[in-house]
Design brief:
The protein is mainly alpha-helical. The chain is built from 9 helices and no strands. The protein has one domain.
Length: 200
């Protein structure tokens, strides 16, 4: 429910041209006091299910607002929740939703992805920049992979990128060049690692 409310707020913000950047996100979170972590986790989990804006805004914002360690804990919690929602929705209500809301081309892409889903595939798809996060969650829910295997593989795949984004958010005000250099270096490493895995 909190995720739905948060996503609705994000949609309203976009329609009204509210400036949502990591620095502004941090200011909004500080105003919420003790509820700030809950708001961040809910909003990030929501956009991992319905990607109305890039999740990276919240992930970098978590580093800005809470620092490297707490920020990483919060985004990992949100990631597990978002990944779980997509998986469960597909596993139990997927066929009905698929026929009702997705166009034929997206259904075909999801069907092709489902046939190749394994724990290795989940790690690869989460590791590589580019694939739509919800599509991987939904495809995994449609596949025969078990939930524990899926969630562990998803966690392993997203961890490097999340750690990078949160750390970059933590460093961006103190050392913007270092934050940018770190982000570029790790991103390059993820692309190289992803290509190596895909060849295997």
């Amino acid at each position: 429910m909190l995720a739905i409310i948060s996503v609705s707020g994000i949609v309203i913000a976009r329609v009204t041209n509210t400036d949502i950047r990591p620095a502004n996100l941090r200011a909004m979170l500080f105003q919420l006091g003790a509820l700030a972590p809950l708001a961040l986790v809910s909003a990030l989990a929501g956009v991992l299910v319905v990607p109305v804006i890039p999740a990276s805004i919240f992930q970098v914002g978590a580093g800005l607002a809470f620092g490297s360690w707490l920020g990483l804990v919060y985004v990992l919690i949100a990631d597990v929740i978002g990944a779980s929602i997509g998986f469960v929705v597909a596993r139990y209500w997927g066929k009905t939703l698929l026929a009702r809301y997705l166009d034929v081309q997206t259904q075909a892409q999801l069907d092709g992805l489902t046939k190749r889903i394994s724990w290795r595939g989940v790690i690869l798809l989460r590791l590589l920049p580019g694939p739509a996060y919800p599509l991987v969650s939904f495809a995994s829910g449609f596949s025969s992979i078990s939930y524990p295997t899926y969630i562990v593989a998803s966690f392993i795949g997203v961890f490097p990128g999340l750690a990078l984004l949160v750390l970059a958010g933590d460093l961006v005000e103190r050392s913007p060049l270092l934050a940018f250099g770190l982000a570029a270096l790790v991103l390059l490493g993820l692309v190289i690692a992803g290509r190596g895995l895909s060849k295997k």
